[in-house]
Amino acid sequence: MQYTQLLRVLCSFAIMSCVAVLVLGDSECNTCLPNKVQCLNETHFSFCGNNVSPDQVMQCPDGQVCTSLLKICLPKGSNAGACTPDAEVSCPSCSGSKLFVCTSRTTFQMCDGDKLTGQVTKCKDNTFCSMKSNKFCVDRCEITKSVDGFECDREAPLDA
C-alpha cells in the first residue's frame, strides 16, 4: 500500500516538473543557452560558442521560434520559445520631442507631437529601425553593437 502511494507521489512530482519546464521555458533573451545559441528575440538568434562571431544573426523560418533545444527553431506553439513574444514587447511612443519612433524591428512612423502619423514606413531589406542613430534605419552591425539591441523588438507593427 505504501509503495503505491510513494509511486503516485513520485509520478506526480515528475509530471509537475515536466509541466513547469514546458510552461516556464527560458525566460531571458540575449543569454547563452545550453545549445550554444542566444535568442535575441522570439525569431532571431546568434551563436555564442567559442570561435563563432556573435554578430552573425540568423532568423528562424516563418512560423518558428528560437528555443534552447538542440533543434534551435521549432514551430510556434509546439514548444515554449526562449524569448518574450511580440505581444509582450513595449515599444517607444511619441513624446513630443521625437521625430519618429520604431514600431517594429523594421518599421517606423513619424511623430506629430505626441501622436503617430498614419504612414508606416518600412526599412530597406537587411536594415533595422534605429532611433538612437537618428538615421531611421541601420544595418545589423549597428544594432548588435548596441547594449540595448532593438528599440522595438516586434516582428511587425501592432496595427499591421
Shape estimate: globular
Strand content is 25-35%
Are there runs of 5+ residues with pLDDT below 50, and where? Answer: 9-27
Quaternary class:
single chain
Biggest β-sheet: strands ordered side by side in the sheet: 1-2-3
Class of secondary structure makeup? alpha+beta
Number of E strands? 10
Range of helix content: 10-25%
Radius of gyration: 20 Å
Commentary on this structure:
- The protein is α+β, with helices and mostly antiparallel strands.
- The model is unreliable at 9-27 (pLDDT under 50).
- It has helices spanning 2-24, 140-145, and strands spanning 37-39, 44-47, 57-59, 64-66, 73-75, 100-102, 107-112, 115-122, 127-130, 136-139.
- It is globular, with a radius of gyration of 20 Å.
- The protein folds into two domains: 2-84, no CATH class; 87-145, no CATH class.
- The chain has two helices and ten strands.
- The strands form four sheets. Strands 1-2-3 form a three-stranded antiparallel beta sheet, with no helix packed on it.
- A hairpin with a 5-residue loop joins β9 (127-130) and β10.
- Residues 1-25 form the signal peptide.
- Keywords: Signal.
Note the topology.
Layout: H1 2-24, E1 37-39, E2 44-47, E3 57-59, E4 64-66, E5 73-75, E6 100-102, E7 107-112, E8 115-122, E9 127-130, E10 136-139, H2 140-145
Signal peptide: 1-25
Keywords: Signal
